Amino acid sequence: MRSTFNILLLPGDGIGPEVVGAACKVVDAAADHFDIEVRHTERRIGATAIREEGEPVSAETLDAALASDSVLLGAVGHPDFDDAPARPEAGLLGLRKHLGAFANLRPVKALPALLGSSPLKREVVEGVDVLIVRELTGGAYFGEKEEGDERASDLSLYTREEIERVARVAFDAAKRRKRRVTSVDKANVMATGRLWRKVVTEVTEDYPEVALDHLLVDAAAMYLVQSPKRFDVLLTENLFGDILSDEAAMLPGSMGMLPSASLGKPGSPGIFEPVHGSAPDIAGEGKANPYATILSAAMMFRHTLGRPDVAEAIEQGVSVALEAHFFTPDLGGGKSTEEVTRAVSRWVAAGEGVI
């Protein structure tokens, strides 16, 4: 029986529609090759939703996300709303909360074709393969807030349950990798950091085959660029994970190469999106790097749609395109979004050969 998947597309703002459009073309090529059916439904989120619907994400969009098999998202954010009461980013936070997507997976790989694109020395980045597991629904981003001209605060709150469930995601992932987890906190000065370290240490008792070490976030930031190959799975709270994964973008050479998956309970829809922002300054110019969104679509097939074979085909298509020097401007090349998309799609559709 032919498999059918219902995907909600949330292109969002800036270059979001371009990179989501690119990923959809690759997904359609994969669907034809593997004889599966992928149905797309599109709705608004972010600044686009504020302009058209009056809020960063509507209840109808949230319900559509919950009813889908998975969500493929572009990017949110626009400088027109930097000082507005309703910010585009609130749409993404609301979506994650509504779907219960508490664990964010951000793989960081230094692909051979891109070793020259990294600002770090080749010997530092060659062979890097890190999975950042970021807690996604707690911490300062979701805590009670106080705003004012003279005083402001963001409550960073974590419960034992929130820490334990994301820790188990990290340890389960490590069992399939090199069996090492590095947990990042600020336990020397923060109460949440001390609870984080305590709970993660307790969880490791259920994973005797996985080695655990703890690092303060400042040390983790240093080692990430000094000796990134020391890391296998990097487990972190929300704020630290946001910052460290952006820093890690320099390992493969561009934030345009980093995909992500936001996952909740088994069977619930995941959210798959590139790590990069909306880049409104280059929107519509054909310069956007679609690789991260294409790789996010591959993660979608692996993590929520149960088709690792399709994921591997898409990832291989990306590798082949990069080996053939289909580099967008952020990677030091001159290929357009459309040229990269066609190259990956051709390989995925054929399943073999060269571009």
Describe the structure.
It contains 12 helices and 12 strands. The chain is of the alpha/beta class and 355 residues long. It has 2 domains: 207 residues, Isopropylmalate Dehydrogenase (3-Layer(aba) Sandwich); 122 residues, Rossmann fold (3-Layer(aba) Sandwich), CATH 3.40.50. Helix 11 packs across helix 12. The two termini are 31 Å apart.
- Major beta sheet, specifics? 10 strands, mixed
Roughly how much helix do the residues carry, as a percent range? 40-55%
* Strand residues, percent: 15-25%
CATH architecture of the largest domain: 3-Layer(aba) Sandwich
Shape: globular
Short description:
This protein is α/β, with parallel strands linked by helices and 355 residues long. The protein has helices at 16-34, 47-53, 59-67, 89-99, 122-125, 160-175, 191-203, 217-226, 238-248, 291-303, 308-323, 337-350; strands at 4-12, 37-42, 70-75, 103-109, 129-135, 145-146, 153-154, 180-185, 211-216, 233-236, 259-263, 270-274.
Give a quick set of tags describing it.
single chain; 355 residues; alpha/beta; Isopropylmalate Dehydrogenase; Rossmann fold; two-stranded antiparallel ribbon; 12 helices
Question: Secondary structure elements and their pairing?
Answer:
Layout: E1 4-12, H1 16-34, E2 37-42, H2 47-53, H3 59-67, E3 70-75, H4 89-99, E4 103-109, H5 122-125, E5 129-135, E6 145-146, E7 153-154, H6 160-175, E8 180-185, H7 191-203, E9 211-216, H8 217-226, E10 233-236, H9 238-248, E11 259-263, E12 270-274, H10 291-303, H11 308-323, H12 337-350
Parallel strand pairs: 1-2, 1-3, 3-12, 5-10, 8-9, 8-10
Antiparallel strand pairs: 4-5, 4-11, 6-7, 11-12
Helix pairs in contact: 1-10, 1-12, 6-7, 8-9, 10-11, 11-12
